[in-house]
Fold these 4 entries.
Entry 1:
Amino acid sequence: MIWKGFRFGMFLQIAVGPICLFIFHTAATSGFMAAETGVLGVVVIDGLYILAAIFGLGRILQNYPEMKRVIRYFGAAVLMLFGFSNIVGGLGVSFIPTLDFHAGQTIEIVFVKTLVLTLSNPLTILFWAGVLSTKLIEENLQQRDMYLFGLGAVLSTFLFLTIISILGTFLFLFLDPVVLKRLNIIVGIVLVAFGIRTAIKKM
């Protein structure tokens, strides 16, 4: 079941999202260790979301649509806030000090930022609730099997984002600081776009 979860998780990585972009950007501006700390933050939250799905919180969200709406707008706001911070940071303007994306971020700051970004999409619980429910019916899974499937999915996230960190580190080593500032702006624009899409997306 771990292997099945791993394969499924790697398939999901094809859809590059804001978290992947943030890890790549962190590696390019702050180095591998900072980015890998962010990867650990993602793995922690994803693991908690999968556990929450197994424990049935996804069903609660399905029964209360108004809660989903609030969570969706919260997630969109977080993405756009990070995006705007990135854009003005790339322009050399201080926006919100604790959210500034710049070279030399401490490991602690990167970890907190990644936790916040990953937490900005709690509706992930609904996705995993749907996936695990389908597996439960199709393959007659026991609860232990669901834990193992979830573990495999989390391991795939760790491996994929670690590879992204390595790729981003090459930019950190070879790119000019001016180019990295432009990367800040590009990443910021994409994060804002993700936030807008999240806000207007139909549930």
Note: The chain has one domain: 19-200.
Entry 2:
Amino acid sequence: MSSRWRRYLTEAVRFLAVGGLATLVALVLFNLLVHGFGADRLALLESEPILAYVLANTVGMAVSFHGSRNYAFKDRSVRPADGGLSAFIVINAVTMLLPIGCLTISREVLGLADPVSDNIAANVIGLVLGMTARFFLFRTFVFRRPLTLLAEDRSAVSAIEAPAPSTGASTSAPAGRAAP
């Protein structure tokens, strides 16, 4: 396996680990806010599942940013002055529309408001769609490849494309004279 694919797979596995932790935090918080835990079933945002989803995932986004910056994409440089935070927030806000759309369809179109339906819509289907989009967008716009890796890749390509040295006599003419 080439070093490029090894780096890609390493980043993908680390991204999934960070995303798993952030998702767990958001999942617990979402369910606590919408469905409550315990016998008394105190749910602060029972009638506001979209707001609860946004709040829970904002906390998850903070976990994700720190994990992505310090673990998943630790070998990549961040060129913006804010450390990529603004691009990270914009990407998360836009991709959060995917699970919100799934939750809205489940609740408003299909009329499903139980905990299992909410979690399948937002935290399974929506999560897979959003996480896939975020992985590629983060790699492209927030956590870019270090310049040293770009130079190494160019050197490797140049070495492959370079013509093999000839073993025969030179056909070049001395300086100032045309070749026959």
Note: DSSP finds six helices and no strands in the chain.
Entry 3:
Amino acid sequence: MDLSKQDHQRIAAAVAKAESTTAGEIYCVLAPEVSDYKETPLVWAAASALVLPALALFAGLRPHMLTDLFGGWTVAHETASDATIFSALSIYIAIQAVVFVTAALVVSLGPVRRALTPGPLKTARVHQAAMQQFLSHGLHLTEGRTGVLLFASVADHRAEVVADEGIYAKAPREVWDEVVDLLIAGLKKGDAASGFVAAVERSGQILAEYVPPRAGNPNELPDGLVVLPRPDRG
């Protein structure tokens, strides 16, 4: 999701305007995605390798059928049954390996990987990334502890507001759900800039009500939008 110079200017202007009416500090961060979810292909591959061959057995596939299918020798003598079992198990393990590799390759495709990653894991990763941004940019160090982070991850389809304790002590947490909704609405339309502008304007209204400006009202944080790089896929 590319943003133009004008988009960045709109967001910065909205932040500056909102902060002029409050002692709060608003900081905006947009991430293309917060994680590559490397564990997702491995989990799905392992589950597929364990479950699919077993389901095939329950569906009627038998060891001797595996041996016949792959051209194994048919042992007529009863004392040679161990060799038959060993051959069938070897083929079964080979099938598991093929299923594992195939599933891992398919789920490694970006859209498939994201679609098959559990929602709670995405939510947790987005929250973790938001908290990292909150702390790394010093929002917890503002005078009066009035920093507010607006964070969104495009590929994860998630947004979050992180406010410092000075904000939560005055403004109820529930009001920030409105801010998240506005931000997500813009992202759904493919217009991240408008989403951030609307979220910033609503944040300014909330902060103006609960955290009025103080004497001097210094601007402690940059007003512009920060766009994060994609995670290193190593």
Note: The first helix runs from residue 5 to 19.
Entry 4:
Amino acid sequence: MTKPARPPTSLLDKYHGADFHPLYTGTVCVTGGTARHARASGVARSDDGHLDVQLRMPQALGGQGEGTNPEQLFAAGYAACFHGALTLLAARAGVALEDATVTAAVTFGRDPVDGLFTLIARVRISLPGVERAVAEELVRNTECICPYAKMAREGIDCVVSLE
């Protein structure tokens, strides 16, 4: 088995176009399962078949917790994207990252503004062996380029449509 290739640091080169330039689209369809409710018994499947997970309510929300949930999936995406951007920036700066970890915790809760729901994300980064000042600069710069961090900070362009 060959070792997976890392993305090139050229992905960090700035884009100067006038319009959004798509690079990749991940598409996932969620169905409601036996309870007809995605959080309770849903299934999430990607169009390429690489993601196929059972969605279940976590025990903290009254479920049995026998599957994953939207908060875990979002946390996984956030942490993976942040880690990837961090790794690219470190490579470009000539900083070796050994055993770097990014842990994202996404909390689902009540929104005091409208009384409905909101999410809070907490991201912890561990960069063993990297001088503190260098690590802090890498993390600050990663926050500027990681699309998940940007989305959490600035929002996201979102179009919801009924078929």
Note: The longest helix spans residues 70-93.
